[in-house]
Fold:
Amino acid sequence: MNQVGLVGRLTKDPMLRHLSGNRVQTHFSLAINRNFKNSRGEVNADFILCTVWGRLAEHIVKCCRKGSLIGVNGRIQSRSFVNEESTKIFITEVVVEDVRFYQLKSRDSEEAIASVQPPDELESLKDFVLPEEEAKLPVV
Structure:
């Protein structure tokens, strides 16, 4: 079974790409804090590449900005390509099939918009270590 669920913050604003055949796609990285501290007492983060297709991609681009806290469900996909320097590049990404919006950023300000999920669903997240919003998330 190939299934993954993640909760994290977007590292930059997602952009919609228009492809042939009226297909649309977006990709973004999710910053996900690890649930332990390193030897210096700091919490490290992983940056996971996500790809979304179709109407769900349009919805994410419309609603989400850098720093938005979202949950995604999907499958892991590996692919490769040859870059301009003739080097084979391997990519592992999550192909998103479902998304949950937990804390969105508005277009006009850095203030968070109230959660759009019902309280019972947020209660189920109380055991997760959610990423703290950083002033400057790295662009991945």
Summary: Helices lie at 54-63, 119-123. DSSP finds two helices and seven strands in the chain. The mean pLDDT is 83.
